[in-house]
Amino acid sequence: MEKTTRQATARHYLMCPPTHFDVTYSINPWMDPGKPADRSIAVDQWQRIHDQLVGLGHAVDIVPPLEGLPDMVFAANGATVYGDRALVARFRFPERDAESAEYLDWFAAKGLKVRQATLPNEGEGDYLAAGPWLLAGNGFRTDRRSHVESEEYFGRPVVGLTLVNDKFYHLDTALAVLDDRTIMYYPGAFTPGSQAILRELFPTAIRAGYEDAEAFGLNAVSDGKHVLMPEGAAGLTAQLRDAGFETFGMDVSELLLAGGGVKCCTLELHDQSAIW
Length: 276
Ligand code: ARG
Hints:
Elements: E1 12-15, H1 39-55, E2 59-62, E3 79-83, E4 85-88, H2 99-109, E5 113-116, E6 127-130, E7 133-138, H3 146-154, E8 158-162, E9 175-179, E10 182-185, H4 192-201, E11 206-207, H5 210-214, E12 221-222, E13 226-230, H6 234-242, E14 246-250, H7 253-256, E15 267-268, E16 270-271, H8 272-275
Parallel strand pairs: 1-2, 3-16, 4-5, 7-8, 10-11, 13-14
Antiparallel strand pairs: 1-15, 3-4, 6-7, 9-10, 12-13
The structure holds arginine.
Protein backbone atom coordinates (compact mmCIF):
# COMPACT_ATOMS: atom_id res chain seq x y z
CA MET A 1 0.00 0.00 0.00
CA GLU A 2 1.14 3.54 -0.78
CA LYS A 3 2.24 5.72 2.14
CA THR A 4 -0.69 8.02 2.92
CA THR A 5 -1.12 10.79 5.46
CA ARG A 6 -3.57 9.48 8.02
CA GLN A 7 -6.07 11.62 9.88
CA ALA A 8 -7.14 10.92 13.47
CA THR A 9 -10.68 11.76 14.62
CA ALA A 10 -11.85 12.06 18.24
CA ARG A 11 -13.51 8.92 19.53
CA HIS A 12 -15.64 7.91 22.48
CA TYR A 13 -15.05 4.54 24.15
CA LEU A 14 -16.56 2.55 26.97
CA MET A 15 -14.28 0.31 29.04
CA CYS A 16 -14.65 -1.91 32.11
CA PRO A 17 -11.69 -2.43 34.47
CA PRO A 18 -10.61 -6.06 35.06
CA THR A 19 -11.32 -5.82 38.81
CA HIS A 20 -12.83 -9.32 38.79
CA PHE A 21 -10.86 -10.74 35.87
CA ASP A 22 -10.10 -14.47 35.98
CA VAL A 23 -10.21 -17.58 33.80
CA THR A 24 -12.64 -19.85 35.62
CA TYR A 25 -14.36 -21.44 32.60
CA SER A 26 -13.58 -22.04 28.95
CA ILE A 27 -15.76 -20.69 26.14
CA ASN A 28 -13.04 -20.22 23.52
CA PRO A 29 -9.87 -22.19 22.68
CA TRP A 30 -7.60 -19.63 24.38
CA MET A 31 -9.14 -20.17 27.82
CA ASP A 32 -7.76 -22.83 30.15
CA PRO A 33 -9.07 -22.62 33.72
CA GLY A 34 -6.05 -24.72 34.76
CA LYS A 35 -3.74 -21.81 33.85
CA PRO A 36 -3.97 -19.13 36.51
CA ALA A 37 -4.29 -15.54 35.33
CA ASP A 38 -2.63 -12.77 37.33
CA ARG A 39 -5.29 -10.16 37.95
CA SER A 40 -2.91 -7.42 39.06
CA ILE A 41 -0.96 -7.73 35.79
CA ALA A 42 -4.25 -7.65 33.86
CA VAL A 43 -5.23 -4.46 35.71
CA ASP A 44 -1.92 -2.89 34.77
CA GLN A 45 -2.22 -3.93 31.10
CA TRP A 46 -5.78 -2.62 30.93
CA GLN A 47 -4.76 0.67 32.55
CA ARG A 48 -2.10 1.24 29.91
CA ILE A 49 -4.65 0.78 27.13
CA HIS A 50 -7.00 3.17 28.90
CA ASP A 51 -4.32 5.78 29.51
CA GLN A 52 -3.01 5.57 25.96
CA LEU A 53 -6.49 6.27 24.55
CA VAL A 54 -7.00 9.18 26.95
CA GLY A 55 -3.49 10.44 26.12
CA LEU A 56 -4.45 10.51 22.44
CA GLY A 57 -7.34 12.81 23.35
CA HIS A 58 -10.21 10.32 23.25
CA ALA A 59 -13.11 10.21 25.71
CA VAL A 60 -13.29 7.03 27.78
CA ASP A 61 -16.28 6.19 29.97
CA ILE A 62 -16.26 3.37 32.48
CA VAL A 63 -18.95 0.77 33.09
CA PRO A 64 -18.69 -0.59 36.66
CA PRO A 65 -17.29 -4.15 36.87
CA LEU A 66 -19.45 -6.75 38.58
CA GLU A 67 -18.19 -9.49 40.85
CA GLY A 68 -18.61 -13.00 39.46
CA LEU A 69 -18.32 -11.81 35.83
CA PRO A 70 -14.63 -12.39 35.01
CA ASP A 71 -15.04 -11.60 31.28
CA MET A 72 -16.71 -8.25 31.81
CA VAL A 73 -13.41 -6.51 31.05
CA PHE A 74 -14.19 -7.32 27.40
CA ALA A 75 -16.52 -4.37 27.00
CA ALA A 76 -16.60 -4.65 23.20
CA ASN A 77 -19.10 -7.46 23.65
CA GLY A 78 -21.56 -5.42 25.72
CA ALA A 79 -23.44 -3.78 22.87
CA THR A 80 -23.39 -2.23 19.43
CA VAL A 81 -23.87 1.54 19.57
CA TYR A 82 -24.63 3.85 16.70
CA GLY A 83 -26.13 7.34 16.78
CA ASP A 84 -28.62 7.50 19.64
CA ARG A 85 -29.22 3.74 19.72
CA ALA A 86 -27.66 0.89 21.62
CA LEU A 87 -28.41 -2.76 20.93
CA VAL A 88 -27.27 -4.64 24.02
CA ALA A 89 -25.73 -8.09 23.67
CA ARG A 90 -27.43 -11.41 24.11
CA PHE A 91 -24.51 -13.64 24.98
CA ARG A 92 -24.10 -17.07 23.43
CA PHE A 93 -22.97 -18.66 26.71
CA PRO A 94 -24.73 -18.42 30.09
CA GLU A 95 -21.43 -17.56 31.80
CA ARG A 96 -21.66 -14.01 30.41
CA ASP A 97 -25.41 -13.61 30.43
CA ALA A 98 -25.61 -11.34 33.50
CA GLU A 99 -23.43 -8.67 31.84
CA SER A 100 -26.32 -7.55 29.63
CA ALA A 101 -28.41 -6.06 32.46
CA GLU A 102 -25.54 -3.77 33.42
CA TYR A 103 -25.24 -2.47 29.85
CA LEU A 104 -29.00 -1.99 29.52
CA ASP A 105 -28.94 0.20 32.65
CA TRP A 106 -25.82 2.07 31.63
CA PHE A 107 -27.10 3.10 28.20
CA ALA A 108 -30.58 3.89 29.50
CA ALA A 109 -29.05 6.18 32.16
CA LYS A 110 -27.12 7.97 29.37
CA GLY A 111 -30.41 8.65 27.58
CA LEU A 112 -29.83 6.38 24.59
CA LYS A 113 -32.59 4.36 23.02
CA VAL A 114 -31.76 0.90 24.17
CA ARG A 115 -32.94 -2.66 23.88
CA GLN A 116 -31.47 -6.12 24.10
CA ALA A 117 -30.94 -8.26 21.00
CA THR A 118 -33.43 -11.10 20.76
CA LEU A 119 -30.94 -13.62 19.32
CA PRO A 120 -27.28 -14.30 20.20
CA ASN A 121 -25.44 -11.10 19.35
CA GLU A 122 -22.11 -10.27 20.99
CA GLY A 123 -22.02 -6.56 20.27
CA GLU A 124 -18.90 -5.00 18.82
CA GLY A 125 -17.08 -8.28 19.15
CA ASP A 126 -18.99 -9.21 15.99
CA TYR A 127 -20.32 -5.89 14.65
CA LEU A 128 -17.86 -3.33 13.32
CA ALA A 129 -18.92 -0.07 11.67
CA ALA A 130 -16.94 0.63 8.49
CA GLY A 131 -18.03 3.62 6.41
CA PRO A 132 -21.67 3.09 5.47
CA TRP A 133 -21.65 -0.57 6.44
CA LEU A 134 -21.94 -2.58 9.58
CA LEU A 135 -19.63 -5.55 9.11
CA ALA A 136 -21.16 -8.45 11.01
CA GLY A 137 -19.51 -11.71 12.00
CA ASN A 138 -21.20 -15.03 12.59
CA GLY A 139 -20.14 -18.61 12.87
CA PHE A 140 -19.26 -18.94 16.54
CA ARG A 141 -21.04 -16.39 18.72
CA THR A 142 -23.42 -14.02 16.95
CA ASP A 143 -26.36 -15.72 15.26
CA ARG A 144 -26.55 -14.91 11.57
CA ARG A 145 -30.28 -14.22 11.95
CA SER A 146 -29.47 -11.41 14.39
CA HIS A 147 -27.90 -9.48 11.49
CA VAL A 148 -31.40 -8.71 10.24
CA GLU A 149 -32.38 -7.28 13.61
CA SER A 150 -29.28 -5.04 13.69
CA GLU A 151 -29.85 -3.85 10.13
CA GLU A 152 -33.41 -2.83 10.96
CA TYR A 153 -32.58 -1.28 14.32
CA PHE A 154 -29.71 0.88 13.06
CA GLY A 155 -30.97 1.43 9.51
CA ARG A 156 -27.53 0.62 8.16
CA PRO A 157 -26.65 -2.08 5.66
CA VAL A 158 -25.20 -5.15 7.31
CA VAL A 159 -22.53 -7.14 5.53
CA GLY A 160 -22.56 -10.68 6.89
CA LEU A 161 -19.18 -12.39 7.21
CA THR A 162 -18.74 -16.00 8.27
CA LEU A 163 -15.88 -17.08 10.51
CA VAL A 164 -14.47 -20.59 10.22
CA ASN A 165 -11.55 -20.94 12.67
CA ASP A 166 -12.52 -21.11 16.34
CA LYS A 167 -9.31 -19.36 17.40
CA PHE A 168 -10.85 -16.32 15.70
CA TYR A 169 -14.28 -16.69 17.19
CA HIS A 170 -15.32 -13.01 17.09
CA LEU A 171 -15.06 -10.74 14.06
CA ASP A 172 -12.79 -8.39 16.01
CA THR A 173 -10.19 -11.14 16.41
CA ALA A 174 -9.86 -11.43 12.62
CA LEU A 175 -10.61 -7.95 11.28
CA ALA A 176 -10.10 -4.36 12.40
CA VAL A 177 -11.50 -1.16 10.94
CA LEU A 178 -8.70 1.39 10.58
CA ASP A 179 -10.76 4.19 9.04
CA ASP A 180 -14.00 4.50 7.03
CA ARG A 181 -12.39 2.98 3.98
CA THR A 182 -9.55 0.91 5.31
CA ILE A 183 -9.63 -2.39 7.12
CA MET A 184 -7.11 -5.07 7.97
CA TYR A 185 -8.00 -8.73 8.22
CA TYR A 186 -6.79 -12.29 8.18
CA PRO A 187 -8.39 -13.95 5.13
CA GLY A 188 -8.00 -17.49 6.49
CA ALA A 189 -10.46 -16.74 9.31
CA PHE A 190 -13.31 -16.42 6.78
CA THR A 191 -15.19 -18.67 4.36
CA PRO A 192 -14.22 -18.30 0.68
CA GLY A 193 -17.47 -16.39 0.05
CA SER A 194 -16.78 -13.93 2.85
CA GLN A 195 -13.21 -13.49 1.60
CA ALA A 196 -14.61 -12.59 -1.82
CA ILE A 197 -16.95 -10.00 -0.23
CA LEU A 198 -14.05 -8.43 1.65
CA ARG A 199 -11.88 -8.31 -1.48
CA GLU A 200 -14.68 -6.62 -3.39
CA LEU A 201 -15.58 -4.04 -0.72
CA PHE A 202 -12.06 -3.32 0.47
CA PRO A 203 -9.65 -3.87 -2.41
CA THR A 204 -6.89 -1.90 -0.66
CA ALA A 205 -7.21 -3.66 2.71
CA ILE A 206 -4.16 -4.71 4.67
CA ARG A 207 -4.07 -8.50 4.78
CA ALA A 208 -2.49 -10.15 7.78
CA GLY A 209 -0.68 -13.48 7.83
CA TYR A 210 -1.52 -16.31 10.23
CA GLU A 211 1.29 -15.54 12.70
CA ASP A 212 0.20 -11.95 13.18
CA ALA A 213 -3.43 -13.01 13.52
CA GLU A 214 -2.44 -15.62 16.09
CA ALA A 215 -0.57 -12.92 18.02
CA PHE A 216 -4.00 -11.21 18.12
CA GLY A 217 -2.65 -8.34 16.01
CA LEU A 218 -6.05 -7.77 14.44
CA ASN A 219 -7.66 -7.10 17.80
CA ALA A 220 -6.79 -3.46 17.35
CA VAL A 221 -8.32 -0.03 17.98
CA SER A 222 -7.77 2.75 15.45
CA ASP A 223 -8.76 6.41 15.42
CA GLY A 224 -7.85 6.73 11.77
CA LYS A 225 -4.19 7.33 12.44
CA HIS A 226 -3.10 5.80 15.76
CA VAL A 227 -3.49 2.04 16.07
CA LEU A 228 -3.34 0.35 19.47
CA MET A 229 -2.72 -3.35 19.03
CA PRO A 230 -1.32 -6.32 20.88
CA GLU A 231 2.47 -6.26 20.68
CA GLY A 232 4.07 -9.22 18.99
CA ALA A 233 2.38 -8.90 15.62
CA ALA A 234 5.64 -7.72 14.04
CA GLY A 235 4.74 -8.22 10.38
CA LEU A 236 1.40 -6.48 10.70
CA THR A 237 2.98 -3.60 12.63
CA ALA A 238 5.40 -3.06 9.75
CA GLN A 239 2.55 -3.22 7.20
CA LEU A 240 0.61 -0.59 9.17
CA ARG A 241 3.59 1.73 9.42
CA ASP A 242 4.24 1.38 5.70
CA ALA A 243 0.64 2.42 5.15
CA GLY A 244 1.14 5.59 7.22
CA PHE A 245 -0.39 4.51 10.54
CA GLU A 246 1.27 5.11 13.90
CA THR A 247 1.26 1.90 15.92
CA PHE A 248 1.25 1.36 19.68
CA GLY A 249 2.15 -2.20 20.70
CA MET A 250 0.40 -3.08 23.96
CA ASP A 251 1.27 -5.97 26.28
CA VAL A 252 -1.95 -7.99 26.68
CA SER A 253 -0.43 -11.29 27.84
CA GLU A 254 -2.87 -11.78 30.76
CA LEU A 255 -5.95 -10.73 28.82
CA LEU A 256 -4.95 -13.18 26.10
CA LEU A 257 -5.39 -16.01 28.60
CA ALA A 258 -9.11 -15.30 28.26
CA GLY A 259 -8.89 -14.86 24.48
CA GLY A 260 -9.00 -11.07 24.57
CA GLY A 261 -6.82 -8.18 23.43
CA VAL A 262 -6.90 -4.43 22.96
CA LYS A 263 -10.09 -4.13 20.93
CA CYS A 264 -12.01 -6.58 23.15
CA CYS A 265 -11.47 -4.18 26.07
CA THR A 266 -13.01 -1.22 24.24
CA LEU A 267 -16.54 -0.61 23.05
CA GLU A 268 -16.54 2.31 20.64
CA LEU A 269 -19.62 4.46 21.11
CA HIS A 270 -20.38 5.73 17.64
CA ASP A 271 -22.76 8.09 19.38
CA GLN A 272 -23.91 11.59 18.66
CA SER A 273 -20.95 13.27 20.32
CA ALA A 274 -18.62 11.27 18.10
CA ILE A 275 -20.62 11.50 14.88
CA TRP A 276 -21.92 15.06 14.90
N1 ARG B 1 -13.40 -14.76 27.23
C1 ARG B 1 -14.20 -13.89 26.44
C2 ARG B 1 -15.21 -14.68 25.64
O1 ARG B 1 -14.88 -15.75 25.20
C3 ARG B 1 -13.33 -13.08 25.54
C4 ARG B 1 -14.08 -12.06 24.75
C5 ARG B 1 -13.21 -11.27 23.83
N2 ARG B 1 -13.91 -10.21 23.25
C6 ARG B 1 -13.89 -9.85 21.97
N3 ARG B 1 -14.49 -8.75 21.62
N4 ARG B 1 -13.31 -10.57 21.07
O2 ARG B 1 -16.33 -14.26 25.45
